[in-house]
Amino acid sequence: MATVVGLLAQLQVHPVLRYLTLDGITTFVRLITHLKRDIIQPQPVDESNPTTAPTVLPEPLTLFIGNALGIPADTMDDFWSILKDYAWEMPTVPLMQDDYDLFKQWGWRCGLTAVSIYPPDDGCPNLSCDNQIPLKKEYRKKAVVYTRSAGVQPAWNTSLYCPSKYHLYNNKPKAP
Ligand SMILES: [Zn+2]
């Protein structure tokens, strides 16, 4: 597990990230715990283990986090590299009103919403299917979610498709 001392030591020697505030780090952690599926879904299969932070942060996430926290774009790779393991291990933290505002200001334009809807598992639900790797064929549509704490929120509703079933379906012999 990443230790806070180790994390701070790495930040301290970085010419830009040494000026990060504690508020910035905790905001980052809150945001990331709500964005894990958005981070994993675009990754290659061998980077899609939900218990391990992927090496590279997808471009929309880099833009959103960079703008939301005021981190220069050319520093975001270092930022992710230093903080990813620490943030990934944290339990999901409830968002604050300021976080919803950050999504509205910087996230929506990157296709990221505070509320996102995914199937519970990223694998094929058909247990007899020969395709047992994370599904990467997806379809997204816009949704509106009514929340108790944050009012009406836009959301992306993501469906996943199994290519094995898809191909099977398309390769079915035509009836004579
Ligand atoms: Zn399948």
From TrEMBL:
Residues 113-169 form the CxC5 like cysteine cluster associated with KDZ domain. Pfam families: CxC5. InterPro entries: CxC5. This is CxC5 like cysteine cluster associated with KDZ domain-containing protein. It comes from Hebeloma cylindrosporum.
